[in-house]
Design goal:
By secondary structure, the chain is of the alpha+beta class. The chain is built from eleven helices and 19 strands. β4 and β5 form a beta hairpin.
Length: about 400
């Protein structure tokens, strides 16, 4: 039974085999993954269509393959581990090693004088490593001083590689293409603000135990920011729009992409219809998507259809940044590290838990006034979370 590359989506015509889980001759069970494919969007596993033995591998790991291409075969019903051994010609008996003899040049090299021998010993060199300039080509003390140090340093550098090369994964190549395309196409600009996280932190501390007991998921900050962004997008619809040719398409739904870092690269699963989700519903969806992304189980449908994106660099310690748009979207919000800072509160200076916010936007659609207003609305909702309950 042939192992064929399955269809991976309308826009995907090829993939890269990232690894084989089995070797030729290994037993496989039906529906057991036999290889892993990497596309420019997701990583997927290809299961065995029948139980048997992996009979042939026709495309090695790292190969680029087309949809429908045969990359291996399973001998259905065969016992595992019984692959026919590859016969090879009997090896010839080893030749006796020739006795080591000094090369004519080495044999003819004259012995350095006492000063030269002492200098070589101090430098840790042999006479063959230094070009002699004395009588009959003898190595002198001056020769060691002039040319002895360089070979020693070169030898030390050669002990290990100074650089390594690895092929970019298809996902990493796609990320690079999209980010560069966003910079080349959009009139991208970033505006900044800061938000006092004190009220949200107190609210979370007060209810986090009951929240987790009731809903089976921890209460985080991302759900508050998702709801705050929905409120702001309703007021500033241009940030939820995109350009299609010479038209602006305004979206009357709110599919928020949440950037998730994985070992393979950045993926942005989409939370759909966030205006209809509760805080608990958002936290459950984020938790599930995060787990699937780290396990490489994200599907193409999970990554498409977003209208706005949130990226949280604060989980890695970032204090501030300028996020890059996720085309064709016209806005992305960057969250950052919560940092205690002295702030003027009324007539007093208090230490407050502050977070910088950054909104990158496409200036072709969104005006500066709209971008600033959007960010102020997010700030107001986070600093006064009751607004999220009252929808004001």
């Amino acid at each position: 039974m042939d192992i064929k590359i399955p269809s991976l989506g309308e826009s995907i015509t090829e993939a890269t085999i990232s690894k084989w889980f089995k070797k030729e001759g290994d037993a496989v069970a039906q529906d057991e993954p036999v290889l892993e494919l990497e596309t420019d969007k997701v990583t997927v596993e290809v299961p065995a269509a029948a139980a048997g033995r992996l009979d042939r591998i026709l495309a090695a790991a790292g190969s680029t393959v087309k949809i429908g291409e045969v990359v291996g075969a399973i001998a259905a019903g065969a016992a595992g581990g019984t692959a026919s051994p590859i016969r090879s010609a009997p090896s010839a008996p080893p030749k006796a090693a020739a006795p080591a003899t000094a090369s004519p040049a080495a044999a003819a090299a004259p012995m350095p004088g006492p000063a030269g021998r002492k200098a070589l010993a101090e430098a840790g060199l042999s006479a063959s490593q230094v070009q002699g300039s004395g009588k009959d080509g003898r190595v002198t003390k001056a020769d060691v001083a002039a040319g002895g140090a360089a070979p020693a340093k070169a030898a030390a550098r050669a002990a290990g590689p100074r650089e390594t090369r690895s092929k970019m994964s298809r996902l990493r190549q796609r990320i690079a293409e999209r980010l560069k395309a966003a910079q080349n196409t959009a009139a991208m600009l970033t505006t900044f603000n800061e938000v006092d996280m004190g009220n949200v932190m107190r609210l979370r501390d007060r209810y986090k135990d009951n929240f987790e007991k009731r809903h089976g998921v921890r209460m985080g900050f991302m759900s508050f920011f998702v709801k705050a962004c929905v409120q702001a997008l309703k007021e500033i619809p241009a940030v939820n729009a995109e350009i299609d040719g010479d038209e602006i398409v305004y979206k009357n739904f709110y599919n928020i992409g949440v950037a998730v870092g994985t070992a393979q690269g950045l993926v942005v699963p989409v939370l759909r219809d966030c205006d209809e989700l509760s805080l608990a519903g958002i936290e459950k969806a984020i938790n599930e998507y995060g787990k699937r992304a780290r396990d490489g189980k994200i599907g193409l449908e999970d990554l498409s259809g977003g209208t706005f994106t949130i990226s949280n660099g604060g989980v890695y310690g970032s204090l501030n940044s300028t996020p890059i748009l996720n085309p064709p979207q016209s806005g992305i919000l960057g969250m950052h590290k919560i940092q205690p800072r002295p702030m003027a509160v009324g007539d007093k200076v208090e230490i407050r838990p502050m977070m910088y916010l950054a909104l990158s936007y496409d200036h072709r659609i969104v005006d500066g006034r709209e971008a600033v207003t959007f960010l102020v609305r997010v700030k107001e909702c986070i600093e006064d979370p009751e607004r999220l309950l009252l929808d004001v």
